[in-house]
Amino acid sequence: MLEQLSGLMEAAPPLPVVVLACLGVYLSGVSLYRLYLSPLSRFPGPKLAALTGWYEFYYDIIKDGQFYLKVQKLHEKYGPIIRINPWELHASDPVLFSQIYSSGVKHRIEKYAWSQQGLRLIDNSHILTESHELHKLRRKPLATFFCSRNTDNMEPIIWQISRRIRSRLQKLNRSGSVVKMEDLFTVVSADLVTAFSFDDAVDLTETDELQLPGSIYSALQTVARVSAWLNHFSWVTGLINAIPPTLLLRLAPTVATNNRLYLLVKKQFDSSRAARISTSKTTVTISDDELTDELLSPDTKLIAHLLNSNLPPHERTPERVCAELLTIFMATIFNIPRVMMVTTYHILANPDIKEKLRSELVDLLGPDMDSKQETPVWIKLNKAEYLKACVKEGLRLFFGALRGSARRNLDAPIVYKDWVILPGTPVGMSAWMLNTDPEVYPDPLAFRPERWLPGNHKPEMDRNFASLGRGSRTCLGIHLVYVFMRHLLVAMFGPGDRPELTLYETEESDVATTVSGLSGLAKRGARGLRVVVEWMSAC
């Protein structure tokens, strides 16, 4: 008997052969399912993309964030709905935009988990919440705080902070040095976000050294690039989060920026909570309408608003609230400088546009906007159509997230012509393709504010505009972005004693959004927006 068993064991194939055989059977089964049996198998697209996620990895990583351009070419070859990986579809027809990224009133709309793996370094915030119901719960108090009425209520504070950039440029003019505008836009954005978030606001714009905030911006760019890797290798995120912050700071200083910013936010959180917890007795009541316009006091800080909201206690823990504050902080100090560099560059590179903008501001504000005026400057800016057009065009060419994150409608199919996309299927659209549709925006890569002026503006332009998202997960601070950008442009180009900015060794490719990451990025090695400053007197 033993001899027989021994013979059988000797006759059995070696273990490596068995493992390889099992692996072959598994891969064959997976390939068969993905190519022929999957519900997505009937949608067109390259077979390699349907077979493996390595197809997308190649364009995301090896080609450095160029998958969005490949997707555009695939649409030209295969049609308006294509399969871009084994699990996800992509659409190009703008009529589907509002259907895919719907408000979530009639149906449950969830964010596709894979498309946000790169954000897992900041967990527990509303932006990372996949569940429709939990996201709606977490977003409500934030939507109340950032609604248009409350942003308008904060406009005097926004104007005061925006004006700091003018005084800072006056000081830099005396130094005769080249100014990196990304540093300046970063510090003024940090001033704004701390002003509406915490009791102890900062005034980084007036500090003598801009390098620290600038280094934070550079680090956030690195994090945005690394996020593409983390989407494909999500397990790395858990490894990074497990490393003690002090060790991570030594091993990877740029990646450790999240931890540094978290500690900064946590310190402000502890300070604000200690000051308010014993005195705050009110609770914010939020209606079922997510975009409620409940008017808050201009002095209300975001941290107090969240702590006093009617969120359940487990949603108001220090970790949860700090995650929300950190997300908003990072989004502000990264995206505002990006869009302001794009917008400012195009204004400076086009003398006719700069002159039209200045002429409009002189007509509205007079020769010196610093002189006493019966109507506050920010109220007058509501009539500045060309200024608003410059902001809108800058946002269009900023693009936001080039690839876009997919959504899953859990309750209803998406019907498009002869196609039926089953409930729960991840479907995404590209902000790049929507914002550069030549049928909607002629000469789409040109900066033309005139296209947004009354008389030229067409409904299709708003339908396609995707830089700030759409639906139930659109940018929370959409109104704040518009207001802040208008104020910053007026601070730089408005009448009175003002800076005269001239581009210094800066090309469009130094600021243009061409790389897909956590958000849109400029090419590697881009020098950013650099200017020289000459101070001009109104006299």
From TrEMBL:
The keyword Metal-binding applies. One of its GO terms (molecular function) is monooxygenase activity. Its cofactor is heme. It comes from the Eukaryota. InterPro entries: Cyt_P450 (IPR001128), Cyt_P450_E_grp-I (IPR002401), Cyt_P450_sf (IPR036396), Cytochrome_P450_monoxygenase (IPR050121). It holds the Pfam family p450. Keywords: Heme, Iron, Metal-binding, Monooxygenase, Oxidoreductase. Heme binds at C475. Belongs to the cytochrome P450 family. This is Cytochrome P450 E-class, group I. It comes from Podospora anserina (strain S / ATCC MYA-4624 / DSM 980 / FGSC 10383).
